[in-house]
Amino acid sequence: MAFYVGQKIVCVDNKPHPRYGPNPLKIGTEYTFIGYAPTDRDGTPGLFIAEHLSGAQRAGNSYGWRVSRFEPAVERKTDTGMAILKKLLVPQKEKV
Predict the structure, then answer these.
(1) Domain locations in the chain as residue ranges
(2) In the 8-state DSSP scheme, what is residue 90?
(3) 87: part of which helix (H) or strand (E)?
(4) Per-position DSSP letters for 28-51, written without gaps between them
(5) Cα 16 to Cα 7: distance, rounded to the nearest angstrom
(6) Per-residue pLDDT for the chain (96 aa), expressed as one digit of tens each?
(7) Of 9, 53, 61, 66, which residue is most buried, by most CB within 10 angstroms?
(8) Which of 42, 68, 64 is nearest to 51 (CA)?
(9) Distance (Å, rounded) from C-alpha 64 to C-alpha 48?
(10) What contacts 27, CB < 8 A, 6 or more positions away?
């Protein structure tokens, strides 16, 4: 799965890592993707998020979070439409 810098992604897996301990990620929480890590220990791609450094990063390595822990966030484009509908519900004062 490919992400782009600045994209909002959602955590779908926050199991603790046996080497780095408790995981600060929260399932369903949005994070900001900021780049790919060169690789994870087993050769799978890793990624960096703005809100949390991975345990490996804190230990001085360049390993990121597993890509499989995240999915793209669903962007909702209905906010503008809802604002227009709400304006229609407010009675307008007419000049007489």
Answers:
(1) 8-89
(2) S
(3) helix 79-89
(4) T-EEEEEEEES--TTS--EEEESS
(5) 24
(6) 689 999 999 999 998 878 777 788 899 999 999 888 776 667 777 888 888 765 555 555 667 888 889 999 987 665 566 676 777 777 767 665
(7) 9
(8) 64
(9) 5
(10) 11, 12, 13, 14
Q: What is the pLDDT of residue 13?
A: 92
Residue 60's beta-bridge partner residues? none
Report the C-alpha gap between 31 and 8 in whole angstroms: 6
3-state secondary structure of 49: strand
Q: How far apart are CA 1 and CA 21, in angstroms?
A: 26
* Model pLDDT, residue 81: 66
- Provide the b/e sequence for 6-26 (b: ≥16 CB within 10 Å): eeebbbeeeeeeeeeeebebe
Token digits of residue 68: 């499989």
